[in-house]
Amino acid sequence: MPDRPFFTYTASSLRPTYLRLIPVLAWGILQYFLYCKLGVKVTADAAFRFLPYARDIATDFHFGMGQDIRYAGYTSILAVFLKANAPLFYLVAFQAVLSLVALVLIQRIVETLTNSHLCAFVAALLVATCQDIQQWNYYVLTESVFTSAMVFCFAVLILCKNRILQLLSLPLWLFTSMIRPNGFIMIAAALLYFFQLYYPKMPASTRRKMWYAAGASFVLLLALINQLLGLSPSLKRMRAEK
């Protein structure tokens, strides 16, 4: 029986490739129009909080212990560009590149969860063409980097099944938790995920140790939340009034 023509295999193999390329092309078109419309947006929050704090890091490698330490992850990225005397255009370009990588990972994540190229294509296309999401790439704010970092963390959980690689991803989780004040939620979510994943497989002695570790982690998390809230100016005023 003769072999099937070569072009049938080629068409079949290229179909998933087309489904991956279309969201990327849509993303690129939207990025062009958003940059033409927005340029580089330096908000009041960036001018009075992020940029001065990042300059302190860039010049003296000094992390002040005021409320701005809650944004140390993002301001560290900003400090790298300031240290290199790079215009803020390069920062927003970096944020856009991160969002592109996150888009590719979203398609892979949905494909893994649903086992469907079509579902993954639709999800990626919705993200790629959503102006409310993509516009933050052009603001000097935490939203773009934090969103991309959350996707990277989620990709580690879904796409990476090697425990060693999951442990090596801990710096990514810690960095994400420092991008903005509510970033600690990522660490709490990761702890819950690994707890429910490995707990049923553990012997009784190891389960007891796991409960001790979970209790200690909960106490540390409460201390972290208390510290972050304690740095809030509004809470400080309330305490002073008392």
UniProtKB/TrEMBL annotation:
Protein name: Glycosyltransferase RgtA/B/C/D-like domain-containing protein
The keyword Transmembrane appears for this protein: yes
Transmembrane segments: 21-40, 88-106, 140-160, 172-198, 210-229
Domain of life: Bacteria
Keywords: Membrane, Transmembrane, Transmembrane helix
